[in-house]
Design brief:
single chain, alpha+beta, Sulfite Oxidase, Chain A, domain 2, 13 strands, 8-stranded mixed beta sheet, 5-stranded mixed beta sheet, 9 helices
């Protein structure tokens, strides 16, 4: 496993979004390949720089300073396309996020295979500005466009046996060349406890900055759980399962002493190889103090009452 140290990004190096798109032709074919997201939902010519229609603005995080668009789309963890932070934006052009379908199975009354359009139709899109923190001590603030995970969960009518929600990323080494190497146990899997999945903060995102989600950011459908470390926010989802028992998850299987099942942001519990007490936001020079639950403790701390905080990572 290779984890690169974040580079310092000076404010003078930040490029305006419009200039960046023109200069780099929107990251070459990698972003253009984001394609349409469901017939009838977007025009067939839609790509990652296509505006999403009818997005509702919300008050979530409106006081935050946004991370520059260029940083959000070129500094990523997505090992399916390589281990360096720039690899996803350079290599994700091979991903074909349209057509796309998601399998739903397990302890639910309404399982099945659903197109992305099927999943999106009942759910109006809204923009939420959320912080996202990675265990390598860097973070970003992104205006995600998506819809409530809880609303989707309710739609499939989980049975009383459903205690966990499991997500799975596409496995296709032709589209995701990093999967041809045994860096991780593919396909990538992550999971939430049912009460976590039903928390109002958790969303499934299909865009950012009001535009279709770029490939390297998890097109066409990804999880955003802002009180957890980045590895919990699984990308390019093709399967959602409802299980009675706690399932194994990718990083927890690979390095259980470094990546716990819960993955909650906890500045008092250091990663074995670095401190979690502070972080550097992309686009900024100075480090800042890390907040418990990434600053969302008021909304989620009650989920973990009585649990050992040292085990939540």
């Amino acid at each position: 496993m290779i984890i690169r140290k974040p580079t310092d990004i000076l404010s003078s190096e930040i490029t305006d979004q419009a200039l960046y798109l023109n200069r780099r032709n929107f990251m070459r074919a990698g972003l253009v390949a984001a394609g349409s997201i469901g017939a009838g939902w977007l025009p067939a010519s839609a790509s990652a720089n296509t505006k999403l229609p009818g997005v509702k603005k919300t008050d979530w995080g409106k006081e935050e300073k946004l991370t520059p668009y260029e940083d959000v789309t070129t500094y990523n963890n997505f090992y399916e396309f390589g281990v360096d932070k720039s690899d996803p934006s350079e290599n994700a052009g091979s991903l074909k996020p349209s057509p796309w379908s998601v399998v739903v199975d397990g302890e639910v009354a309404k399982p099945g295979t659903f197109t992305l359009e099927d999943i999106l139709k009942p759910h109006p899109l809204e923009e939420r500005i959320y912080r996202l923190r990675c265990v390598e001590a860097w973070s970003m603030v992104v205006p995600w466009v998506g819809f409530s995970l809880a609303d989707l969960v309710k739609r499939f009518q989980p049975t009383s046996k459903a205690k966990f929600v499991v997500f799975e990323t596409l496995f296709d080494p032709k589209q995701m060349p990093g999967q041809s190497r045994r860096l991780l146990e593919w396909p990538y899997r992550e999971a939430l406890r049912m009460d976590e999945a039903m928390n109002p903060l958790a969303i499934l995102a299909v865009g950012l900055y009001g535009e279709v989600l770029p490939n390297q950011n998890g097109a066409p459908l990804r999880l955003v759980v802002p009180w957890k470390y980045g590895f919990k926010n699984i990308k390019s989802i093709v399967k959602i399962s409802f299980l009675e028992e706690q399932p194994p998850t990718t990083w927890n299987l690979l390095a259980p002493k470094e990546y716990g099942f819960y993955g909650n942001v906890n500045p008092k519990v250091d990663h074995p190889r670095w401190s979690q007490a502070n972080e550097r936001r992309l686009g900024e020079i100075f480090r800042r103090e890390t907040m418990p639950f990434n600053g969302y403790g008021e909304q989620v701390a009650s989920l973990y009452q009585g649990m050992d905080p040292s085990k939540l990572f």
